[in-house]
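A common beginner's mistake is to predict each chain separately and then try to dock the pieces by hand. The better habit, illustrated here, is to supply every component at once so that their relative placement is modeled jointly.
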Amino acid sequence: MGIVITAFERSPDGGKGLARDTRVRWALEEAGLPYEVRPVSFRAMKEPAHLALHPFGQIPTYEEGDLALFETGAIVFHIAQHHAGLLPDDAGARARAITWIFAALNTVEPVILELVTARILERDKPWTAERLPLVEDRIRDRLTQLAARLGDADWLDGSFSAGDLMMVSVLLRLRPSGLLDEFPSLAAYVARGETRPAYRRAFAAQWAVNAAPPVGG
Amino acid sequence: MGIVITAFERSPDGGKGLARDTRVRWALEEAGLPYEVRPVSFRAMKEPAHLALHPFGQIPTYEEGDLALFETGAIVFHIAQHHAGLLPDDAGARARAITWIFAALNTVEPVILELVTARILERDKPWTAERLPLVEDRIRDRLTQLAARLGDADWLDGSFSAGDLMMVSVLLRLRPSGLLDEFPSLAAYVARGETRPAYRRAFAAQWAVNAAPPVGG
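With all components supplied together, the output reads:
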């Protein structure tokens, strides 16, 4: 009963690893689970067959036998809950690691999504140049708080967990903006995540699908 | 070993039930658990004692003996995982209910938060009148997809679950905007949540703290 996930047939980021399937690939690699990837085109993503799997017409989805899930956070949590390597055994530490999954997705990512919206969906709007600094300052507020909590620790709560996997993945979205580099301890935290062998394998796998082929030759 | 949560000493919504402690109160009421509330002032929320509990200086938090959690999604999930009434027993149905918790928080709430940002934080900005329709259309897109999935069912996946609790709570934030009423099946879904005895008790409890006393007399 193999695991099948969906991913962009062609990621909008050209292979930078920012599409959400990378988060699921990373979790599967940390857990040492083999998986197959079914690529989905932008057109197919909005068609009934895919909407039956994912009501919001996005990727990734997760299928394993009779079970079909959507929503990256839920998929990563599902993998973490059923396999070793992503959540501590101690009940309290486990609850705190799960807290960081939610914090990454519901407290840190929303302010970052506003930046993505401003830079992409509202790129050509007359207000965007003047509005961007406000959006960026709201991100800085959150990163200041996150950096204060992280302190000089390697990970958010003891050993690496699915909470770190999600927080690193969310913060990675900021790298193109330069904002992450304003917070050296968070930039180092993200880099620490990226050096994990499981992350490297996940990144390489999505790169192989998405990176533009070399010109010429 | 009692449960203690934090809530606004005085909620910015004046008791409409939109502050996030209502979500946790609702989950505790569904599970039939007694709890105490420790009110926190806006000033105290940003001070070291509260930041030690909640790194982002928000409410609610959850304490039970040695365990201290923050982040509404994590708290509701913790309650749901350890007590009957909020998650189905069947493993697949349980994973799908958890999926809806994440979908409410990471796919539906972020577009709604953009509306809150526009209407409150950017209320006086010159671009806001022209920008609001774009923000509202992004919400309409998500609600159209959500309504398509809900169909004429009472709840998102079988019986009421923590996933519905969270989705109803997120959608409630839209009521003041009038957007929810554009989707009659979702408005009815939210109303269905509000008629649950556990929700009524949670609402009444936060109302007792936050509602302005009658003038005069």
